[in-house]
Every structure is written in structure tokens, then in C-alpha cells.
Amino acid sequence: MLQKIYKKGFLALAVTSALGLAPLAHADVVIGVAGPHTGANASFGEQYWRGASQAAEDINAAGGLNGEKIKLVKADDACEPKQAVAVANRLVDQDKAIGVVGHFCSSSTIPASEVYDEAGIIAMTPGSTNPQVTERGLSGMFRMCGRDDQQGIVAGDYIIDVLKAQKVVILHDKDTYGQGLADATKAQLNKRGVKEVLYEGLTRGEKDFNALVTKIRGAGADVVYFGGLHPEAGPLVRQMREQGLTATFISGDGIVTDEMVTTAGGPQYVKGTLMTFGADPRKIPDGQAVIEKFRANGFEPEGYTLYAYASLQALAAGFNGAGENDPAKAAEWLKANPVATVMGKKEWDSKGDLKVSDYVMYEWDEQGKYHQK
Amino acid sequence: MDGIFLQQLINGLTLGSVYGLIAIGYTMVYGIIGMINFAHGEVYMISAYLSAIALALLAFFGLESFPLLILGTLLFTVCVTGVYGWVIERIAYKPLRNSTRLAPLISAIGMSLILQNYVQISQGARQQGIPTLLDGSFRFAIGDGFVQLTYTKVFILVAAFAGMAALTYIIQRTRLGRMCRATQQDRKMASILGINTDRVISYVFVIGAAMAALAGVLITMNYGTFDFYAGFIIGIKAFTAAVLGGIGSLPGAMLGGIILGVAEAQFSGMVNTDYKDVFSFSLLVLILIFRPQGLLGRPQVAKV
Amino acid sequence: MSSSAIDIKKSLLDAVLAGLLALIVFGPIVGVVLSGYNFNLQFDRVGWLVGAVVIGRFCLSLFLQSPRGERMLYRFETAGSGVHVLPPDHKSRLLWIVPILIVLAVIFPFFASKYLLTVVILGLIYVLLGLGLNIVVGLAGLLDLGFVAFYAIGAYGLALGYQHLGLGFWSVLPLAALMAACAGMLLGFPVLRMHGDYLAIVTLGFGEIIRLVLNNWLSFTGGPNGMSVPSPTFLGLEFGRRAKDGGVPFHEFFGIAYNPNIKFLFIYVVLFLVVMLVLYIKHRLTRMPVGRAWEALREDEIACRSMGLNHVLVKLSAFMIGASTAGLAGVFFASYQGFVNPSSFTFFESALILAIVVLGGMGSTVGVVIAAFVLTVAPELLRSFADYRVLLFGVLMVLMMIWRPRGLIRISRSGFTPRKGVAP
Questions:
Q1: Across the B/C interface, how many CB contacts are shorter than 8 Å?
Q2: What would the CATH number be for the domain defined by A28-147+284-346?
């Protein structure tokens, strides 16, 4: 049985790429790709970098930004605000970036965006969903994803209308993203007259939630909502099932990755788990050709890969639309015009949020894949 | 006793026995050279990767039966992690043997950064995991509630206590253990009496790493998931457990681990998960105020 | 110490053994890459690593057999200890460096780019932190692993003071130092009777408790979302492009073009002055009775107590002065970043500050200044190594510790000539 689970290993003759630094050509414009390239969230950083790299390649092949080639710079913030500020200053000052795709953690995006605003450059975050990111009146801050409050409304309505749940437990990971999401869902539930039976936070990086699960069991929950990321969601759902708790598990876009199955110890545990996420970018016909390119390179474009791709596309469209590589004009253009991206047509309002958020509910099946419900 | 309380007790015991296993590494190293080995949590993390790799390789070669699989994985992980313990000591701590007390501490912090990033670079930043090995569980009805105990947890409890018993035997009854205790009591005197203290210190690192490896296999089996960052939190908790029980004392480390685990589980069950860690650290501070040498530690006798 | 002929056979044996170990160590982790429940084999990488280790070990072994290598080994095995006492009328030959450094610091901002400026500000903040911890660990010998708590108190003091009381940068600056000192006293009283390493874990716990409370107390501290921090003002003038609350921006008042660097320039100037002040105070303190008492207590507590030194008071004073310095640093950090949240105050931060103190040389002021810059600037310099950045930082820490286990600069003190007529 195990041999079946461990698929046949193969010899990969991977040639480790040399540590050579690409020579800096003169006519290049620099775009930063800022995110957690090291640290606990480095897998999201990798998705960003893969997505943006592919986008830069494609845009450069199609003529670049007003005739100039894009040169990407990797900016690592490790999801620490201190490093985010330092790296933002470096992007602005040292690399002379005119645009940034990033950051990932909202707690990094918020302080870094102040730096970008002072320098007058444009930033598009593929994944920071905290409302505060765009609520501070910065003219050059955009996002390619929805907001936690929109996501919370979808989740809250679903819990009441479809699941008809009475006893809801809300958990979060005490981080900007997770708690924001949990609070948004809680607000929607309370607005519609459902009071949660338990509202608690767990610690990121821990793996043992047995005590919490027992407590949830004691509360007699029939729905457990979790605001957080997959490293905690996986063990949490597994320990729920191991303790014989059958309540429905719902989370947000922080668990959108195949690693969710790995962290939960197998598809039998994630089966039936629900989550809110933008309409699957991999299902949108506009992106099929791009997705094939990723797969040809042996990388499944999951999670935020296509968001990063689309973010760079949008920035490029802004600069090309403005006719010159001026961040302020590109920002104005983006707020006035729709952009056709790999994820479909996107429009932004005056705050830099997407006009239409397309959060829908997904369900994981017993094969460990997710499907739109 | 109602079902919930009993379930929390079991949760706490499994968590605590794992803390205890890792705490042994801290307490032994501290006892013998008076150094806090901050890289020890990372040693556990390495062993988690090793156990998953061993499991994958064994399953790939067609090994199916659970006892053989787990035995092979344990053997491989304990051996290789032991070598890691030895190499780390040789590179980062041995050159600092005669230097200030804090120098190895900083070197250990550097080492833990190295290990974390070495694993991240070679294995990727992904979350890793192993499939469930032992499916199924016992279920006891108690009052109107029930207690559910997976086979994996039973296995963990048994294996952890077996490991601790074996270690106690080694330290109390064998020649190696006698050398360790002698070196711990007075390093200079021990070396005068013909004990190669440098080698004993190396052995201690290997034993500590081996216990961390046992914990690594058990934790990986139980939670099924780990990443290159997993050593940090559990390292801090295990260190707390070691101090709680009295650093330098072996039974203290086990007791400290179990007390910490049970206290955490009961507190988050009855009060609040948010403040679970605040509670465990406050507990530590309180115990240390009234018993500065920890629960089972020997009081420090100041020599003039 | 015989400088016999180089034994190649021994070196070869060393190299082969090292290679075997490297194979065991790197083989599984580097060679078998897990992905999901699957794995890839990448033995070529193992080959390169093992090859590098074998060659490296061989060269090292040869080097250590040469006369120079033997001298180095000898130095390792007999590391001296204690304080180095200089002759009574010793004048440091390096005294000319101080004015040069000050001049450099003054003219630096005229040439620096904003990025460089921010890196240097961060460096100076860590100098402050290092100086503070240096009093606690280096001088008084109290191992504090939760120093970041006081730093957090300073930073959140500014954010909360602004949010709830409307206080600004200037009024919080002294207040934060005071608050941190009080916190130091509160923590200090119960724990100071503990011995060395128990103190370490209790302070570690305290640091974590402060961080967790900041993170969990949503209504008061904003939880993980953090809080925004006002920019500092200069005589009521703001540095933003647009002034908030109807004030007049600095650049409009003086009729100059808006320049986002001005805020950082201002922080740099104030920070620099504060660092100089703290340096001076610390310099004087170490020569005052209380400073002498710290060091005496570090060397031998029992002897001190039997001579009638109030050890609690002495330790407490070290704790409080150290804490207040960290509080000051926190205020600067908060206004430099414009935003505070609990993830800036993790245990790793405490470890970094401790590394600064140990690396600089316990008790040595100049060493701490140098180490603070090395440890804050190094990760920025290493950015061009991308993924290998933190790995190299760790290697740097270990190597520096092995190279200079007593820190970059050994603490030394000028001696006194005994007066005539007094028995030596």
C-alpha cells in the first residue's frame, strides 16, 4: 500500500545553476518581486518568483515596457516588517525600481507601501488581503486579490445559508492575515444573528492542537472556521478527525496549495474541507497557454503563482497604457482602464482594490484535489 | 472525571513526553559543559526530515510491514542524527571549549541559522509530511462523553517511555554512563582519573541527538508534517521543560516535559488557547522564584 | 611543539574520514529531496559537497601541520581569561580614530543615499541596544535572553502614547526610557536572586510574555495588525509631503523642495546625538563606584557580598539602566519604521542583540559598536547572495566566534600606580 503512496522515485539529473549574476544591461527597467523568499513562508515567495519570472519573460518577448526590457529583482522580507522596510528602501534607492510585485504578508506590505508611496512608485500585491493595505489613501498601492472582508462575507453567508450551522467555532493564527479573515467572518455571522460558540487563536509554527480540538469537541461545534495558513490548518484538521470530531472545516485562501494534503497527513483527512478562494485561475481560459508553460517547466502554478504573473502583467499594462515608464501615470491609468490578465479581465477602484471580487467556495475531495462547489 | 478532562490529560501526556525527549538533549549538554545548546531544536528538525526520507526510501524498496518499517526508520534516523550531533559539536563547540561561557551560545545560534537554511536550500521551502502509518484508534465512553486515543499516540507513549528507560539504564548502570556522570560532577578530576573528557562530551552530544531523533520519528508519525522551521518553537518549549525540571537532571527533564505538556493542554482546554504560552512561561517563573534550582535540580552550592 | 615534517599520510586519512562523515551527513538531506509523498534523487549535489569537504579538510590538515598552523592551534588551546590590565600611564594608540569616526559620521549623510541612510540608522539602533545589553550582560554578568521586551516597550510606548494620549516623539523619548526602566525593575526584583542560567530562561520567558500580550490584546495594541506611529517633528514641523492635523510641513516652512530623506536625516541626527550621549554616560559609569561594583559582582558575587556590597541594588541598577537604553532604541525603531507590530520583537531579536554583545567583546564599548554594524549591515550586504543570505550569516557568526571567542575587542582597563607609603 505504501509503495503506491510513494510514487516511483526518479533520478533527476538536475544541473544546479551557477551562482552567476546576470550582467546589468542599461536599457532595463527594474521591477522588484518582494516577498518571503526565506523563512517560514518561503513557499509563497517561490510561487511569487516563479509567476513573476514567467511573466517578465513573456512580456519582454512581446516588447517589454514601452520598448524597455523588464529586469526582475528578488527582494526578500522573510515576512518581517523590519526587513520589509529595509528591502523596500533598497528597491527604491539601490535598484531604482519603478514598480513592485509584493509583498506577501500584510504586516510587511503595510510598512513597505509607505516607502513606495514616498518614493512615488507603484506596487501591486498578489496576496495581501488585509483591508488596511489599501485603506490608507496611498495612490500607488494596488492588489490583485480580494479583501478579507469580502472573503469573510462569502464564508459567513455560506455557513448560514448552505450549512445551516448553529454552533460555529472560529479560530485564527494570531497573525494579520489569519485574524483579519477570522474577524471578517465573525462579523458577518454576528450581523446575521449567529453568535460563535468559541473564538480563539493558536500559535503559528506549532503542530499540536489536540487540546484545542478537545475543547471544540466540548463546545459541540458543527462548523469550525479557521483563519490561517496551511502549515497549521493541515495538522488541525487531522487532529480533529483523529479525535472523532466530524464538524465541517472551513478556511480561506491561505490553504490553497497541494501542501495542504501533505500537512494533513493524507487526502482522507482533508476530504470535505471547504475554503474560499477567487475563481480558480487555472480554470480561466485566458490562462491556459501560460499554465502549460509552467507545467512544461515542471512547476504546478498553484496558489499565488498566477496572481504574481497577473500582477506583473497589470503593472506592464499600466506602464504601456500610460505610454511612458512613469509610476504615477501608470497608477492613474490602471484606475481608469481594465486590464486583460492571465486571470481574466480585472478593474481597479480609486483605492486600488479590485472592483469585482470573485470569491467562491471550494471543496477538497478524497483524492486531495480541490473543486469549485 | 469527565471525558473532556481525561482527553486533555492524554493530549498533555503525549505532548509532554515528546517535550521530555528533546529536553534530555538540553539538560545533558548543560549538565556536562554548562552550555545552552540552542541548535538542539534544529537537530530535532533534521531528524524529522531524515525519518521521512528513510520512510520514503524503505517504502520505495517495497517494505510494507509496520514493525519493520518503523524499526528501519528509527535505526537510520537515530544513527544519522547522532552523526549530526557529533559533527555539530566538533565544528561549532569544540574549538570554544576553553573560552568564555557565552561564546558557544552565540556559536549555537549561528549553527541553528545554518541548519535551518541548509535544509531549506537543499529540501526546498515546502511543507513536508509522511502518510499516516498507523490508522485507527481506541474509543472509550466515559459518562456522557468519550475519549479517543489513536494507536499512534499509544505507540508514542510506549516508545517515549521505553527510550527514557533505556537512557536511564545507560547513565546509571553502564561504564559510559559512569564516565558521563563523573565528567558532569568534576571535569578536571575526571580527566585526572583517566577519562577522556573530550570524548565523553562528544558522546553526550551524540546521545542528546539520538534522543531528539527518537522524538523526531515519533512527532513526525503523530503529526505527519514538518518544515525546516519546525525546530524553533519545540526547541524553546523543550528548553523550558528542561529548566522547569531542574537543568542538568535527567529525570527532571522528563518530569518537566510532562508537567509542561499537561499544564498547556489543561490551560488551553479550561481557559484560553491565546494565553497558553503566557501561562506556561508564568508557571516557569513562579516555580523558579520558589525553587530556583528547578523541581529536581540540585541546589547550587556556592564555593568560595 | 615540534615542527616536524608534514605528515601527508595523516592528512589523507583526515580527509577520507571527513569525506565519509560528509557523505553520511549530506547524503540523505541533500541527496534525497522530498516532494509531497514523492522524492527525487540528486546525488550530483552530494558529490560536489563531499568533494569540497574532502579537499577542504585535506588543506586544513596540511595547514595545521605547518608552523603557522601549529601556532594557531596553540592559541586555541590556551585562551587566556580575565581582564587585560594596561600599564598605569597607558595612552591608547588608537585614540585618533575617535575624532575621525565622529567626523565621518557627521559628513556621511551628505553623501549617503536613502537606502544607505536607513541601513546606518538600523545599525545605530542596534548600537544602542548593544550598549544597553552590554551593561547587563557584559558588565554585570547577568545573562538576559529577553532584552527585546524593553525594546518593545519603547516602541509600543510611542505608538500607544500617540494613539491614546496624543503624545509625540519628543515627549515619549524620555518617558519610554523611564517606562522601560520601571519594567526592568519589576522584572528584576523577583528574579535577581536566581543564578546565571535560570535568569536567562526567566528573562526569555518575560520577553515572550510581553510579545504574546502585545499580540493577543487586540483592543489595546491592535494585535498582529500592529499600530502606525507618527513621524517625529522638529519644533512642531512635520516631515511628510502633506502635514497631518493642519500643521505646516518642514519643507514648506523653510521653502525647500520636498525630500523624503529629510525624515530619516532627522532621525539619524537625533539618534547619533543620543548614541554619543549614551556612550559618554556609559564611559563615565564604568569608572564610577557603581560601574566598578557591577564588574566586581560579575567576577565574584560571594566576595562582594561579604564585603558589604548590596548585590540586589547593584544588579537592579544595571538592569534598569540597560532597560532604559533599550526603551530609547525602541522609540527610534518605531519612528524609523512608521509602524510597529509584535513580529519585530521575537526571541531571535534578543539573540541577535546578545550576539552583538558577545561578538563585540563583553564589556567593550568600541567592540559593541563595531559588532552592531557588522551584524546589521552584513545581512544587507549579503542580499546579492539571495537564497544563501541567512545561511552565510550563520556561517559568519560561527566563524567569528571561533576566530575571536572573546569578541572583536578584548576589554582592557588602565591600571593604577600604588601611592607611596601604602603597602602593595
A1: 187
A2: 3.40.50.2300
Hey, are the CB atoms on B50 and C395 less than 8 Å from each other?
no
Which chain B residues are closer than 8 Å to A234 by Cβ? 127, 129, 224-225
Which chain A residues are within 8 Å of C343, Cβ to Cβ?
79-81, 107
User: Cell digits for B270?
Assistant: 479550561
Give the model confidence (pLDDT) of B127-156 as tens digits.
Answer: 888 888 877 788 887 777 788 888 888 888
**Percentage with pLDDT > 90 across chain A:** 22
At C262 the three-state DSSP class reads helix
Nearest residue in chain A measured CA to CA from C229: A111
Cβ neighbors of B1 (< 8 A, separation 6 or more) are B142
Instruction: Give the C-alpha separation, B31 to A350, whole Å.
Output: 63
CATH of region A148-278+359-372: 3.40.50.2300
Spatial distance between the Cα atoms of A142 and A341, rounded to a whole number of angstroms: 15
What pLDDT, on a 0 to 100 scale, did the predictor assign at position C155? 93
Whether pLDDT at A149 is above 60: yes
Which of C48, C77, C106 lies at the terminal end of a domain, its last residue? C77
Q: Please tell me what DSSP assigns to residue B86.
A: H
Contact A7 C215 (CB under 8 A): no
Residues of C in contact with A90 (CB under 8 A): 115, 380, 383
Q: pLDDT digits over A194-225, tens only?
A: 888 989 888 888 888 988 998 888 888 889 99
Chain C residues with CB-CB distance to B47 below 8 A: none
Q: What is the pTM of this model?
A: 0.83
Task: Give SS3 for B177.
Answer: helix
In terms of CA atoms, which chain A residue is nearest residue B52?
A6
CA dist., res. A251 & res. A228, Å (int): 7
In a domain, C423, yes or no: no
In this predicted complex, what is the ipTM?
0.85
Which amino acid does the sequence have at C59? C
Nearest residue in C to B52, CA atom? C34
d(CA B182, CA A42): 46
Our CA dihedral for C269, C274, C277, C281, rounded to 10 degrees, sits at -160
Kindly report, residue by residue over A293-343, the tens digit of the pLDDT. Answer: 888 888 888 778 889 999 999 999 999 988 888 888 999 999 998 988 888
DSSP string, C286-324: TTSHHHHHHHHHHH-HHHHHHTT--HHHHHHHHHHHHHH
Diameter of chain B by CA atoms? 65
CA C87 to CA B149: how far, in whole Å?
A: 72
* A41-75 residue pLDDT tens: 777 888 899 999 999 999 999 888 888 889 999 99
Give the DSSP H/E element, type plus range, for residue C188.
helix C169-191
Nearest-CB residue to C339 (from A21, A81, A175)? A81
Residues of chain C with pLDDT under 50: 1-3, 424
Residues of C within 8 A of B247 (CB-CB) are 197-198
Please indicate, yes or no, if residue C199 is contained in any of the structural domains.
Answer: yes
* Tally: H helices and E strands in chain C: 17, 6
**Domain assignment of residue C253, yes or no:** no
The reply to whether B88 touches chain C by the CB within 8 Å rule is no
Report pLDDT for A366.
86
The residues of chain A that CATH labels 3.40.50.2300 are 28-147+284-346, 148-278+359-372
- Which chain B residues are within 8 Å of A211, Cβ to Cβ? 8, 11-12, 264-266, 268-269, 273, 276
Burial label, C311 (beta-carbon count in 10 A; 0-12, 13-18, 19+) = middle
Give the residue from B273, B275, B280, B281 with the most A CB atoms within 10 Å of its CB, the best one to mutate: B273
Which residue from A9, A38, A242 is facing B150, i.e. has the nearest CB?
A242
Residue C245 near chain B (CB below 8 Å)? no
